[in-house]
Write a structure and sequence with these properties.
mainly beta, three-stranded antiparallel sheet
């Protein structure tokens, strides 16, 4: 359960197939149902990163 997602995007990329996804359903306890998010705030950070805050749509 959560009511907010906070993500920092850095100016870098990793194309490795072993890179984990941002979200992964936990086996046996999660539904395979997509959730929507609403952007609450976007903030530019030092070094070119961006901090994004999203609220969970219910």
């Amino acid at each position: 359960m959560c009511d907010e997602i906070s993500i920092v995007l850095a100016a870098a990329a990793d194309g490795s197939p072993d890179t984990p996804p941002v979200f992964r359903a936990a086996e046996g306890i999660s539904e395979s149902k997509a959730l929507g998010f609403t952007l609450k705030e976007a903030k530019a950070m030092d070094g070119g990163a961006v901090w994004l805050r999203y609220g969970v749509n219910r």
